[in-house]
## 1
Amino acid sequence: MSRESSDSKPIAEVRVGPDLFHALCWVASALAVATLAWIIYEIVTSAWPAIQKFGFGFLGSSSWVPNREVFGVFPFIVGTVASSFIAILFAFPLGLAIAIFLSENFLPAPVRQVIRFVVEMLAAIPSVVFGLWGIFVVIPIIKIFGDWAVKNLGGVPIFSGPAYGNSMLTASVVLALMILPTVTAISRNALTAVPKTLREGAYALGATRWEAILGVILPTAAPGVVAATILALGRAMGETMAVAMLIGNSSRLSWSLLSPGGTLAGLLANQFGEAEGLQVNSLMYAALILVVITLFVNVLGELVLRYTQSQTAGIR
Amino acid sequence: MKPLPFLLIGAALAGLSATSQAQQLSGAGASFPAPLYQRWGVEYNKLHPDVQVNYQSVGSGAGVKNFTAGVVDFGASDAAMSDAEIAKVPKGAVLIPATAGEVVFAYNLPGVETLNLPREAMAGIFLGKVTKWNDPVIAKANPGAKLPELPIMVAYRSDGSGTTYVFTQHLSTISPEFKEKIGTDKSVTFPVGVGGKGNEGVTALIKQTPGTIGYVEYGYAKGNGLAMASLQNKSGNFVAADGEHGASTLANVQLPENLRIWPVDPEGANDYPIASFTWLLLYKKYDDAAKLKALKDFVTYGLTTGQSFSEELGYIPLPAPVVEKAKAALATVQ
Amino acid sequence: MDNIVTHAPDFFSNSQAEATKAIARSLWNRVLTSVCVALSLLTLVPLVSIIYLVLKNGLPLLSWSVFTQLPPAAGMVGGGFGNAVIGTIVMVGIGLLMSGPLGILSAIYINEYAPASRLAQAVRIVAKLLTGIPSIICGVFAFAIVVSTTGRFSAFAGGVALAVLMLPTILLTSEQALMGVQSAFREASYGLGATKFQTIVRIVLPDALPAIMTGIMLAVARAAGETAPLIFTALFSQFWAKSLSEPTASLSVLIYNFSTVPFPHQIQMAWTASLVLVAFVTLANITAQLVFSKKH
């Protein structure tokens, strides 16, 4: 207080600052909400003819035949959910491992710094390049794996043949890598934000490093880690170009991860440029469904978070 | 604090746009002719530094949308515009054939360098009825070729494209079953195969797996060294996919008044069966006289000098009678 | 927690059990460390593979002239993508100018001013929903609100599309960053008599800045590499841009264009452009980290 008055600013002036700032923050928040509302309005308006014509049948129908004006996205919904969840299945443990690795002192700081930049560099690689990398590097590997899996694990539905290079598995693996920087960077931030005192407290009680990490640090950082995962999942579901290049874009449903599939965002990327009339409406309807799926995932994430927090309530 | 960036941008927008001197023309649409149109733009700019023509591929559908909305100076489409679509354009539309291309059956079958595909096999493969390379339908047309007992892997375009339109249009014409089960469109649903995004995606699929066959633009197959099948045309001959046979197809086409035509099943003995024009979309009227003149000059350049880049880039040059009719259509633009 | 008192009578055997347990714990500790390090290094394999692919294909054409020349058309040799480099910087810049303040101020509102308010809850949901919007929709949206109304494709429209794309990442990471600031800092600041505004601007924001920068860099990286939002808004240009209100080239659209043609020179150029894009974003990232971590 005395420091402020020594700056000899009139009290009134100081008061205008915060109030204006508060208002400014409010306006920004309102604008953010308005933006989404506007986007959804745009999507719904252009989707309306398709919504009217197909209703909820759109979600359950498996045929997408533009020249017959028959549209249904069930296989693409399945593909979207499957590919992004498999991607998270890969990216979450790896991303979290790297995040822990980067926030602990297993290796000297400069080494960690380099690894961190390599991971964040990944975020800058354009989707098209991920797609090309998938074509040149991942597909040949997945093909070898696929042929092996069909021969040895063919009985398991998810590995039933024939194995294709452009498949659900290929797309998921590349997606996992694409979202890895998001998982890692945000989780790392959350881990480093855990107050030192908590960790020191755990050590003082005789905990080993990993007892401290698993028992204290991770639970404390859980909201950040969950936020990172949700952000990454949203990114995986919304990814267009790389998926369209790798997934094989088929609307035939299959249990096998080695079969071609399709996603909603990939469908949009594939067909939006050439679409006309009802097909455009249906594509926008598909985009709307994607938004709804994202909403579901977020609600799910919120529940997971609440559960984690209730489990670790004692520590926090 | 916040409105500041907007003000700055607004000022920049207002200030900078006034200083631009060169005549700018922008176009958007079909992806197939994009390399050629961009080449025209760059070459024309060398001759006329005061005119900058931009063309970006956004897809024929989006191109027609942009053209109808009036946010471009010209559009381009592989599938021409229907009368209903033209009616929606406030300033009216003139279609001008600007170049042409072929769709080829490219395949990857080690040991088989030339392949004849009879009409029955062309449709049969994409209907999922011809499933082995040594199927009698194929074997009959290829005496002496060592066709392996390999399953046929089908590769198709997963993105909407004029290529798919032209391809399915031909197959629908020669096969009633194809017409009934699959039909003609820029994106259709095939009962078999894997979808690749773009010509390059299908090319990659073909290259990766022996036994794969797919359809791509001639330029891609040529540029990537893919083997191309000779296709049986209406008169029963097997015709190789190349510029010569494509030119023969186009030369035999009788252009109607509106210049909108597909040689869906050409009759000439040497005609390659799957070839098509692609169109520039111009407005009937332009308000800006300078823009009109620049655009007309540019399109005239493309129809004449510009045709000389066709072969090199894998397109078929327009036959002289088509160029004359296109120029006549251009003259109606005001 | 073992209670020493209950074990005290059986002193001898207890210490042995304790010793075994201690060894087990330390062993477990080592196993987990090895697993963590192994997983991290394993993940580096694909990362290095991608970067190697970009370097291998991108380096041959890399020279100073790619920054000063215009894109080659099909069948031409030489050329570069100077206009696309500028276009990308300008459009990402416009996007950041809009989404940065919007995202950070919203994050401040929902974390500092009114965390429990309806608006804050709405903002949180909105931000998460925006992350799932396919990038192509950002393009369609910006087309509808800018291109349709101004009647032309422009760098400004491209910037708006990118702003929409960047907003959720910046907002959510900023919120996380602000949450990471210990409440003790705020309390100390209030204790010294600072106002809320002073606390936020002088204490909370500086402490959260490195984490906010991570979010901004993630957003910038993604925006710089996205094709779909720009193709429907900024289109592309073969020439140098003279204003923000004309079709503008960008690296991502150039990469998309050139990677989808059958012409070897253009395909090579696409790789070089990818390399330049990745290098630029990484440089920006490193600079930002250095500047802001020092300040901190």
## 2
Amino acid sequence: MVPTGVFQVNDTALQATQLKTALTFDKAKAVRGFRLPDATFRIVSRSAAVLVLIILTGVVVSLIHGSIPVFKAMGFEFFTSSSWNPVTERFSAGAAVFGTLVTSAIALLIAVPIGLGIAVFLTEICTPRLRRPIAIAIELLAGIPSIIYGIWGLFFLAPFLQVYVQPSLISAFEGIPILSTLFQGPPYGIGILTAGLVLAVMVLPFITSISRDVFETVPPVLKEAAYGMGCTTWEVVKNIVIPYTKSGVVGGIMLALGRALGETMAVTFVIGNAHKISGSLLAPGTSISANIANEFTEAVGDIYTSALIALGLILFVITFIVIALARLLLMRLNLRAGT
Amino acid sequence: MNALYRYRRTRNQVWMALSFISTIIGLGILTLILGGLFWKGISGFHSGLFTQMTPPPGGEGGLLNPIVGSLLMTFIGVLLGAPVGVMAGTYLAEYGDKSALASIVRFINDVLLSAPSIIIGLFVYQVMVAPLGHFSGFAGGVALALIVIPVVVRTTEDMLRLVPVPLREAASSLGMPRSFVIRKVVYRAARTGMVTGILLAVARVSGETAPLMFTALNNQFWSTDLSQPMASLPAVIFQFALSPYKDWQQLAWSGALLITLTVLTLSIVSRALTSSRT
């Protein structure tokens, strides 16, 4: 259709100007209206991120601040001796650090081979149909609170060890030089060995699920090439899967170590809470976390409380180093997977 | 068949058998634990468990006050911790990305995520309990919040990163300011995942004992006063399991079963939520 005369042209122009003014007006207002909430949101989210940093700093500062009295009272002896006497107010970290390290070592010695074995089973041997259910079951178990493992260790594992396992261990290793020292003394049921075993059971699902995850990052084509050359499953695992995922597996194990070192409830139930360093794994001992958990609310006097906080500081420093190393290793693996 | 072939085949079979056996051992032990827990726990389930207070030794009773205490403190923990976690996770995924601050926060968050929870208890004791002079349910809630934060930060960041970038670009091209893109588009796309993260944090927190021992302590009696010591399921389990009284030990088992069922339900629900979307 042909436009009919001047009227309409004017009309459109008029409308356009009106539209334009309306638009600019709305836009300016809208932009101004958006600016404040936009900036607020950004600042709030940034502050929340900074808060995470503040929390960690706060933890470190408060631990150091709380440990000062005992460091002043005991000096360097706090780290070197193993005495723990609330009556004379002589405290030192030796026995607790020893117990923490030994129980964690036992836990890893047992849980790492079994965990890796399960991961290999799940990724290489298991039929696809069973793979998911077993993996899900293990992941669910990794989420079970540690107090459950502790109560199980106290009522099932400790009596079982006391009646069936420890007596035969003691008699079997009698007379053999080092082993007889490791397994000597009356079978209490509870003690360093039991604590290590409970920890092993607790970190097992954790190690398994991390190793399974990293094993699955191996490109199928690498494994297929190896199988194509006639490698056996074991040879593929040993020469392809493990070398490819080495840093991931080590990172996972160190995360598990971090967990074992700081674990409180699973250990406190079964370690026996005795402040001494014993050569025997069957003897009761203590760990840093068990020591704090058992005595903190009963501690009287500044030095006693301070000694327990100082133990917490030591625990924090140890786990921080372990976790930091683990994260670095896992980060490197992620970088490679990303490229 | 030559000797080398036989050797390789046997070696393979031995290692695969070991791998199979470790699976049997692992699953066996874990079944034993759950089996023992159910067997011991179920026998203590009675109608009074949810309606009666914790008893003195030898008396009849239930777990009402620790259940309520746990719920209250978990609620406070999530109420305080989840918003901080979500916002910090948003910063890491949307604003910070590869900046120095974001990298440091990400690393520190990972450390907090795996740090021993007893340390958190000591920290809250020092900053809240010692200055105020008494243990309180609120301090327990704060301690739990400090455990919730790293879990939520991590899951929020992961979930926001799963949202495709073109969605953000489309929203930005319409002239939406950044924060509106995040709130109206990205959050909506990642909502299920973020809820899952919070559920996982609740699951993690509901079994925590160590951070509560020096903050909320424990309470034998009914109390919903947040400025007073407060009972919680894990603390009661700890106390009762180590006691010499049979009926207390029985209650400890029932409480342990309750916690486990809660945690398992939460993990299964969050798993179902995420898997139904993908």
